[in-house]
Amino acid sequence: MKALLRWRWTPWVALALAAAFPMFASVLDAQYLVRVGGIIGLFMLLGLGLNFTLGYAGLFDLGFIAFYAIGAYTTAIAMRAGVPAPLALGISVIVAVAFRALLGLTILRLRGDYLAVVTMGFGEIARLTINNLDSLTNGPKGLQLAPWRPLSFVSADPNTQYYLLILGAVALGCIASNRLEDSRVGRAWIAIREDEIAARLSGIPVRHYKLLAFTLSAAFAGLAGGLFAQWEQFVTPESFVFWESILVVSIVVLGGMGSIPGVLVGALVLVGFPPIMQWKLSSEWINYRYFFFGLILVLVTLFRPQGILPSSRREAELTS
Amino acid sequence: MLIQQIVNGLTLGAIYSLIALGYTLVYGILTMINFAHSEVLMLGAFMALGLAALLPAVFGTGLVGLAGMFILSMAGAGLINVIIERLAYRPLRHISRLAPLISAIGVSIILQNGVFLWVSTQSLRFPEPVVIDQVQVFGATVSTLQIIILAAALILMGLLHFFVEHTKLGKAMRACSDDIQTAGLMGINSDYIIALTFFVGGALGGAAGVLYGMNYGSIKYNLGFLPGAKAFTAAVLGGIGNIRGAVLGGFILGFLEVLASGYIPNGAQWRDVIAFTVLIIVLLVRPSGLLGEKIAEKV
Amino acid sequence: MTLRKAFAVAAVVLAASCGPKEKTVKIAVAVPLTGDMGTEGQGLRRAVEMAVEEANAAKRFPYKLVAAPYDDRADPKEAVNVANLIISDPNVVAVVGHYNSGCAIPAAKVYARAPVAMISPAATNPEVTAQQDSTDWSGPRIVFRVVPTDDVQGSYAAQFAFKSLGKRRMTLLHDKTPYGQGLGEQFKKTFIGLGGKIVSEDGVSVGDKDFKALLTKVRSDASKPEGIYFGGLYTEAGLLLKQMRELGLKEPFAFISGDGSKTPSIFDVAGDAADGAYLSIVGVPVEELPSAKTFVEDYKKRWTGSGEELKPFDHFGYEAAQVIFAAIERAGGPDRTKVIEEIRKTDYTGVLGRTTFDAKGDTLNKIVTMTRARAKDRAFPSVK
Q1: Domain check: are C125 and C186 in the same one?
Q2: Domain range holding C186?
Q3: CA distance C32 to C14
Q4: DSSP E strand boundaries for chain C
Q5: What distance in Å separates the CA atoms of residue C98 and residue C118, rounded to the nearest whole number?
Q6: How many whole angstroms separate alpha carbon C94 and alpha carbon C343?
């Protein structure tokens, strides 16, 4: 298993298999899994994004989904105003990043759990504002979007198209994360996470790097939100509740903080498990899905507290 | 109207304070946010309901019955909190800061779904052991229930204060809160004190749950989530880890919500936005909360 | 090692709880079965299950009907997941769902691709059916509703408040959901049109318990409102009523709300405080409709567990199932496309009165009746 993870072609093989999956799915009578796969992909994107804030820089963020919402609503509003879809996605990323930067400039001086509460607060502020600002967002009634189906030449099925688009975004996200991880920036983040004061004393401009991690996260969230909006063709505040932020935090921690394959597996397990249960459990057991989910969460944490696929650095720390 | 709103604020604040105390006690000793605390408070309410349903003659009537129901539910909730700590947090304590958090989230899901699946999927009427009257105080309508709630909350807070400040166990708790390793070196059994802290925190949460059920008249499996999140915010506002801070934060949040709903046109819609915005502003001015201390970090 | 063990155990449990795959005809029930809205979803599931059991017992079809539950947790993305799962099961002939408009709207797009009919028992946002008129809609019209859109009840309540109760100044509250806000907006429009005044307006959140501050503001309002119109569901309505009475807001200060509040469960939340509340329902008075009375009694007999009392939208779920049964009969068999067409031609009289659908798919049953809550026997006699 470890050897497989270290082999340099593993990510590319995995990517190829994942891209080919929709073709197998129709043969295996598992089209449902293409849909589930797309949703897992969105949460992989979100996890990769939060990984910068939480995994690398160690900032405890409980309101990440707000930027997913901002991305989704920006795309919706832009496309309804006639902006072409790819441009709308770009604008969503920019808007999400802008809000995040503003928030970061304001609150990043707070430490630890105070930051957590403030980010949670902002998450709720965003959702409630979207719900109340009927003139802009149509409030609880939600907004419809026109469909954008750029990959119609590959498949008529929107699930397949968005699965592939999201897969592409995830691949890009992984590459970006990997590059950053191995760079000065990545090392600075880890230094800050491990011991902020020592990092500061070593000459690392802590505030700047924190803000960078914080802001970069939002780019991923904004993109994911935009893709989500375009796929579903509908946005509503109910999609962006506090629980979703907690889910993304769990994905990063349970998968392995600061570990790219960890985050991907974390999303696969946490986001994939309930829909698989919905598919495979008989009717009497469907009500128990989330009870089982809670059990899994506790058990996996107890047995692998360092994360399912922790980064080698973390594994070394926590098992020595 | 002002007097009435003050009464409203006091009742709400009292409940938030009790819940906030549960968060702050656990945080103070372990720097851990007990995400499952909101479910412990819900279980406290359900235990009270269960007691009244099982033995209505004993617990369903009179002040004595009410007190009995209270004490047993508190004990039960405290016990549950201790069990959760032992099973889901202790193995993770030394490994990482965030792992117990995820475990707590899992426990919260298990408890909430457990009640949904095995107790009831709908709201259940909460027992009313004492007859409730309305009295007029300076033009405000105050129900005897609100007086009971406020009194109970204040008594419990007073007891907690006495326990923490003037008993040996309380001293041990404070020592562990300050520096658990040194406390261990001084001969304090930190595992035992941690369990005790969880018991006390859980008991307070359970008490809040019973008061909650009494105040609103009905309970449901998901009753814990919202007050839990708000009380956690209150605890942080006051300075997480600080007992007086939790009480202060709880009352401030209660009054903030009442002011927003009560005085601002369309305020009830924006109430939570206002509350969180105030929280952010306060924390920007005092980054360790209102009564939190800036702990110097030794390098 | 221990992780692998854990997964092995999980796999065994999963395999053990997997159901056999038989050929049956399924009515999918796509509602929130767990989570915050689980209470209402479970009610709808029970209603449809009861309908299916009755049909099977009466040997209405030569094959066994099954009510297949699907949990959308009131989360729009889960709803779309579930919709994708449903359409991939060829045994599903039609869908009763969804409960939330936010779920019904995106899910309907998926059902249209199959196509399979979706009859909603509770989603009241006009967009649920109106989206089929859009140029972006791909697929046939498959959305139907046995519950009327918001414009009926809100307006009726306004007329009732103005003419029957003589109120001129009302406070408007709603729960910020498409259902509640929709009712509120309609009430406001009609009430002002009649010459009444909305003294103040505010929103509450579903899940909130404490409205004392808000109600104190209403009580002390200088414009002296004569009542509250609340667009929302029974939990919040019940809490509002309870806290209103605690603050001294009683008759003649009126409380008017819609069918989301009209359920015996409101007495669990509010107790005697709910007494005297005016609650509108869709359909003719239950006293004049023997089938409605029978439904309530049968439901009580069938479902006796804790938490299994009749919920406000259950009779809509029951009726949706009946409409589907009738359509299957007319179509000559469980053929999805034929069933869609037959549902469109529905002219069914049941527990809701007479149900027919307009070109959009909305029910033409727009009769509204006002009832008044009576705590001593948990009943809702109709009032004029």
Answers
A1: no
A2: 151-284+368-383
A3: 22
A4: 25-31, 65-71, 92-97, 117-120, 143-145, 169-174, 197-203, 227-231, 254-257, 278-282, 347-350, 353-356, 368-372, 382-383
A5: 8
A6: 10
> What is the distance between the alpha carbons of residues C10 and C14, in angstroms, rounded to a whole number?
6
Of A151, A174, A226, nearest to A11 by C-alpha is: A174
Strand, helix or coil at C341? Answer: helix
- Examine the pLDDT at C1 and tell me if it is beyond 60: no
Cα gap A90→A74, rounded to integer Å: 10
Distance, CA of C203 to CA of C255 (rounded, Å): 16
Q: Is the pLDDT of residue C7 over 70?
A: no
What pTM value is reported for the model?
0.92
Say yes or no: C340 and C378 in one domain. Answer: no
C320 and C173 fall within a common domain: no
- What is the token pair recorded at A134? 């009927």
Q: Is C17 a residue whose pLDDT tops 90? A: no
Out of B8, B260, B269, whose CB is closest to C216?
Answer: B8
Measured CA to CA, the distance from residue A148 to residue A86 in angstroms comes to 9
Instruction: State which H helix or E strand residue C367 sits in.
Output: none
Closest CA to C174 of C158, C161, C185: C185
Residues of chain B with pLDDT under 50: none
Where do runs of H (alpha helix) occur along B239-266? 243-263
Quote the tokens at residue C137. Answer: 């809609």
**A144 sits in which H/E element:** strand A143-144
Phi, psi of C65 (to 5 degrees): -90, 145
Helix A10-27 to helix A158-181 angle, to the nearest 10 degrees?
170
Closest CA to C337 of C89, C145, C141: C141
Distance from CA of B85 to the nearest CA of A (A): 12
- Distance between CA atoms of A103 and B72, rounded to whole angstroms? 46
Please state whether beta strands C143-145 and C117-120 pair in parallel, antiparallel, or not at all (unpaired).
parallel
| C-chain residue closest to A293, CA distance | C10
CA C243 to chain centre: 25
Claim to verify: residue C137 and residue C161 sit in the same structural domain:
no
Asked whether the beta carbons of residue B12 and residue C212 sit closer than 8 angstroms, the reply is yes
Q: Is residue C18 part of a domain?
A: no
Give the pLDDT band (50/70/90) at residue A126.
very high
Strand partners, B141: B136
Tokens matching residue A27:
């043969």
**Token pair 């930190």 is at which residue?**
B190
Supply the pLDDT for residue C15.
55
Domains and CATH numbers, chain B: 2-285 (1.10.3470)
Shortest distance, CA B92 to any CA of chain A (angstroms)? 7
Amino acid at C100: N
Q: Using CB atoms, which chains have 3+ pairs under 8 A with A?
A: B, C
Nearest to C281 by CA among C309, C310, C253, C307: C310
Neighboring chains of B (3 or more beta-carbon pairs < 8 A): A, C
Tokens of A124: 């709720």
Q: Which residues between 100 and 119 in chain A have a beta carbon less than 8 angstroms from any beta carbon of chain C?
A: none
Q: Could you tell me the strand order of the sheet in which C254-257 lies?
A: C197-203, C169-174, C227-231, C254-257, C278-282, C368-372, C382-383
> What's the confidence (pLDDT) of residue A282?
87
Question: For residues A66 and A72, what is the distance between their CA atoms, to the nearest angstrom?
Answer: 10
Q: Are B20 and B234 in contact (CB under 8 A)?
A: yes
On whether both C183 and C221 belong to a single domain, the answer is yes
The count of structural domains within chain C is 2
Using DSSP, state whether B220 is helix, strand or coil.
coil
* Chain centre to alpha carbon of residue C361: 16
Asked if residue C214 and residue C170 are part of one domain, the reply reads yes
Q: What residues have CB less than 8 Å from C199, skipping those under 6 apart?
A: C169, C170, C171, C221, C223, C224, C225
